[in-house]
Write a structure and sequence with these properties.
This protein is α+β, with helices and mostly antiparallel strands. The protein has 34 helices and 33 strands. The strands form nine sheets. A nine-stranded mixed sheet has the order 11-10-9-12-13-15-14-16-17, sandwiched between helices. It has a six-stranded mixed sheet with strand order 1-2-3-4-5-6, with helices on both faces. Strands 20-27-24-25 form a four-stranded antiparallel sheet. This is site-specific DNA-methyltransferase (adenine-specific).
Length: 989
């Protein structure tokens, strides 16, 4: 069929929808050279007329044509309202598998609406005469065969980012003029909702855009005009000649528009040109909040957490359990229907075969019984549906750190989608029509930030309205925004009076609580708040735990008290170790972690971080870790199995390891100086005749170990030196007075303010353990590779170094072995992608070989002929000690020769005795020497290094008694053996 033939035929047609729609579609197929449904799909499985879907009006209805992954097509009679047809398609799109195109036609016009996820919908209107134009005809051809070609290029995310950026800049401008930030936030949110209401038709005739256009001409009257509009929206009525619905919700109650400049209005008019109906509120809220909050404005153009990441928590906590309930309900319904159908068929067969009076009576009885059973079955099915509808309607989701509401919005959408699916299923079975009941009242939030709390309310309401309109449902009015209290603006973990706050009961809890490291809580939150946290949560949360853990503990308590069933929260990935992990251990004691992502990228306040996503509570779902089913999930977010004990979080600190590992000194102040300045001061005299070398030390941090030493020094007045004595060291003391004292005397901790000339946490126990040692073992707290190195006793370790107070090569070798390395990786925490080493949970829990533990090696030492040093140990362990020490000594020699090749360097003594030699690069090798770092060495792992570690591992394995099969052991088996040793020794202790 040619375009001319098609146009000629259908221009004069007067056929009604029922008699003409299928012929019209078949003619289109001929025109486009596309097969008809019956030609390629005789059974109608993926392409058919009258696809079996019920309209939510309750009447029988079908998608007139449906092609899987292409379109749903609805016909109307000539010159009928095609918008009604489009609304109908929207309503039952889920039953049509959500096709990417929704097409409506009255046989004169064909309108293609794109419905691709994540894009701004686009409309293509084709009149009959347009079919003569090849490019227009091609659009229709693509709808049949290549619908992806019709995917809009503008995504909802891009549109939203643009809108949020422009609006955020305007909000920032208003704040910079001195207006109250809360007033700016409220005013901007009123305008935001007006843009949205205008584009979805709630404000008629482009009312808000026209108001801005006219207001630009008379700026002095614009605030009053806006006030009049907002007041009308608050109560309903007329604005000029235009009727305005009653909006309510409190958003327009306090109408206090701010004065705007001509430039401001021009920006608003530009914003009005955007398609606000397609804004993604879950993104907009986060980005716009940054423009309102003075503390976040520098993040205005930063990234945000995408909805798909949030759904990793919302799905397993909110939706998957409900889907399982619905699946079980559907199974029961289908079983009832099958039984009813079977009974009816048996009665029908009996009725057909009757030949005697007795048989006739039996048939009548069977038919009567079948009818009764059918009625009973229908009632049972209706009750099942009603119960599940009630379950959804009463389901509550709490986000106790809701921010601008993105978690709540996505949870609400998921609940509404599930309810819609259930409605379509019930209508397919011919049950009475059910109305959408899930709404904003199903979500609850707690948020301290006033900007975010108000924005969360707007976000949820915009999302609700969008969903209703996008699925073909009309909005409830009078008012449009019901007065529902869904967001509490308050602190979620500490009340103003210092007591523990209550959370409302809710079926589930989800959210992204604030990230703040445990060491920063006091300085950022203040002494009073920090003390309140310690008091309220004493015995439940360690004082050094991150702030986010308080939300985990509160959620755990809600579940334990029966006020919630499950929770899904975001945390930094450091929750897997250290003090933070104790919170997860409490969770595992009272409930179950059933879904988790142990280490994932995330956006927090505009910055990229590494997080753990953790779902816990009462559920029948199988445990899933990192998207794979497992037997169990432990508190360190590793998987367990049913055969062997492998939960490393059960490992205990061992008495034999106590008092050997420490964190370095924490200075709290600008005590650092350069090596050149230190050498200058080392030559200066003091009035009491004592040298500055008493208080000047080389200072190493983690980077000095993993990279090249910086030649950094530090002023150190020890742990007890009085101020009067410190002052005798004239120049170093004056430096501390100038550079340290001004900040330290303002420190929140009284002891740090009082003793301002000393380091904030000088680690007296560490210093005592090191005082008689010529050297000690150090490893960077945070490092890609778990490497242990020797440091000279004169070096003061920074807090970023973990110190082992031993000088022998046996402990050094065991720590550098593969066995300790994998233990450290599994028991330690993480900072982003980088593993962290913790003395308490990594070193103190590690089971050293029998007879070679830190307790066994804390005595006299002996130097072997090779130069290796061993401790004095029991005779039966001496051979193992020698083998490990020799291998470790060789490993260290090889590493040192690679790091500092004798041909490339010169060794110079310090200008005074008592300090390690300085390593100076020869000029020709300076650039090459900079690349000689332990990190680079272990990244490269040359064969000699691998061989040296193999030799060391063999010696350590022999000490464990594993020499016969050590090479065959995988990491899981090694960890299981080490854990078994730990538990056995812990029990003995």
């Amino acid at each position: 069929m040619t375009p001319e033939q098609f146009i000629a035929k259908w221009q004069i047609s007067t056929l009604k929808e029922s008699s003409g729609s299928q012929e019209h579609f078949i003619d289109l197929c001929r025109l486009l050279n596309e097969p008809t449904p019956a030609e390629i799909d005789p059974v109608g499985a993926c392409y058919c007329f009258e696809r079996g879907a019920k309209k939510t009006t309750g009447s029988d209805g079908w998608a007139d044509v449906w092609k899987r992954n292409c379109f749903g097509w609805e016909y109307k009679g000539k010159r009928k309202n095609l918008n009604e047809a489009f609304v109908q398609l929207h309503r039952y799109a889920p039953a049509l598998e959500n096709p990417p195109l929704l097409i409506v036609s009255d046989m004169e016009r064909i309108i293609i609406h794109t419905a691709f996820n994540g894009t701004v919908s686009k409309e293509h209107v084709l009149q009959l005469d347009d079919l003569r134009i090849p490019a227009r005809l091609q659009l229709l051809k693509w709808a049949f065969s290549e619908p992806e070609r019709l995917r809009p290029t503008l995504t909802t995310a891009a549109l939203t980012e643009d809108a949020a950026r422009q609006f955020g800049q305007l909000a920032q401008t208003l704040c910079e003029r001195g207006h109250d930030t809360q007033q700016v936030a409220h005013f901007c949110q009123q305008m935001l909702f007006c843009f949205f209401a205008e584009d979805i038709g709630l404000l008629p005739n482009k009312l808000f855009s026209e108001l801005l256009k006219n207001g630009q001409k008379r700026l002095e009257h614009l605030p009053q005009t806006l006030t009049n509009l907002f007041n009308t929206m608050a109560t309903g009525g007329f604005f000029g000649n235009d009727p305005v619905d009653w909006f309510n919700s409190g958003l327009f109650d306090a109408a206090a528009p701010l004065p705007l400049t001509g430039t401001d209005v021009q920006k608003l008019r530009k914003l009005a040109e955007l398609n606000w109906s397609a804004i993604e509120p879950s993104i907009f809220g986060t980005l716009f909040e940054r423009g309102l909050d003075p503390n976040q404005r520098e993040q205005l153009g930063a990234h945000y957490t995408d909805p798909a990441s949030i759904m990793r928590l919302v799905n397993p906590v909110v939706l998957d359990p409900l889907r399982e309930e619905w699946a079980a309900a559907k199974l029961t319904i289908h079983q009832l229907l099958e039984k009813s159908t079977q009974q009816q068929q048996e009665a029908d067969e009996l009725s057909k075969s009757q030949v005697t009076t007795k048989a006739k009576k039996a048939a009548e009885k069977a038919l009567k019984a079948a009818l009764s059973f059918n009625t009973k079955t229908q009632n049972q099915i209706e009750n099942i549906f009603r119960d599940f509808f009630n379950r959804l309607q009463n389901f509550r989701v709490l986000d106790p750190a809701c921010g601008s509401g993105n978690f709540l919005l996505l949870a609400l959408r998921g609940l509404k989608n599930l309810e819609h699916e259930v409605i379509l299923e019930s209508e397919r079975l011919g049950l009475p029509r059910s109305f959408i009941a899930v709404g904003p009242e199903n979500v609850l939030g707690i948020e301290l930030n006033s900007y975010a709390a108000e924005l969360a309310r707007v976000t949820v309401w915009i999302g609700e309205i969008q969903w209703m309109l996008n699925h073909g449902f009309s909005l409830a009015k009078n008012p449009i925004l019901k007065t529902i209290h869904i967001i509490d603006q308050r602190d979620a973990v500490v009340n103003a009076d210092g007591s523990e706050p209550n959370w409302p009961a809710a079926d589930v809890i989800v959210g992204n609580p604030p990230f703040l490291g445990g060491s920063k809580k006091r300085s950022i939150l203040g002494d009073d708040y920090f003390t309140a946290l310690e008091t309220i949560y004493s015995g439940r949360i360690p004082a050094g735990a991150d702030l986010v853990t308080y939300w985990f503990e509160k959620a755990r308590m809600q579940i334990e008290m029966g006020k919630s069933n499950a929770a899904g929260l975001v945390s930094t990935n450091s929750i897997r170790g250290g003090a933070n992990r104790q919170v997860l251990e409490r969770i595992c004691e009272t409930t179950t972690i059933f879904n988790a992502w142990s280490d994932e990228p995330w956006i927090n306040s505009g910055a990229a971080v590494r997080v753990s996503l953790i779902c816990f509570g009462n559920t029948k779902l199988k445990p899933v870790l990192n998207n794979a089913e497992v037997a169990a999930i432990y508190a360190d977010l590793t998987a367990g199995n049913n055969e062997v004990t492998s939960d490393l979080t059960t490992a205990k600190s061992l008495v034999e390891n106590a008092g050997a590992s420490f964190q370095g000194s924490q200075k709290i102040g600008a005590f650092d100086i350069s090596g050149d300045l230190a050498r200058e001061w080392l030559t200066l005299p003091n009035p009491h005749g004592k040298p500055n070398s008493n208080v000047l030390k080389p200072s190493w941090n983690g980077l000095d170990v993993t990279r090249r030493p910086r030649d950094g020094w530090i002023i150190d007045f020890g742990v007890k030196m009085p101020e009067m004595e410190a002052a005798f060291y004239e120049v170093p003391f004056d430096y501390v007075v100038t550079h340290v004292k001004p900040e330290r005397i303002k420190n929140n901790r009284a002891v740090r303010a009082k003793y301002w000339w000393r380091h904030g946490d000088p680690q007296p126990a560490m210093r005592s353990a090191l005082k008689d040692l010529p050297r000690y073992i150090a490893t960077s707290e945070v490092a890609k590779h778990r490497i242990f190195s020797w440091l000279n006793a004169a070096i003061l370790p920074d807090k970023r170094l973990i110190i082992i107070a031993r000088a022998d090569d046996v402990i050094f070798g065991i720590l550098n072995s593969h066995f300790h390395e994998i233990w450290a990786l599994r028991t330690g925490a993480s900072l982003g992608l980088t593993p962290c080493y913790r003395p308490s949970i990594t070193f103190e829990t590690f089971p050293f070989p029998m007879g070679l533990t830190p307790a066994d090696t804390n005595g006299a030492i002996e130097t072997l002929d090779s130069g290796a040093i061993i401790p004095t140990v029991a005779a039966e362990y001496r051979d193992h000690a020698i083998a490990i020490a020799e291998a470790a000594f060789q490993l260290n020699q090889l590493r040192e020769n690679w790091l500092n090749p004798p041909e490339w360097i010169e060794r110079q003594p310090e200008i005074v005795a008592g300090y390690p030699e300085r390593i100076i690069a020869k000029p020709a090798f300076a650039a090459q020497l900079k690349q000689r770092t332990l990190t680079n060495l272990y990244n490269k792992r040359p064969a000699w290094l691998v061989n040296a570690h193999v030799k060391l591992d063999q010696a350590v394995a022999a000490a464990y008694g594993w020499e016969n099969n050590a090479a065959e052991l995988n990491e899981a088996e090694i960890l299981q053996r080490l854990l078994a040793l730990n538990l056995a020794r812990g029990k003995a202790d």
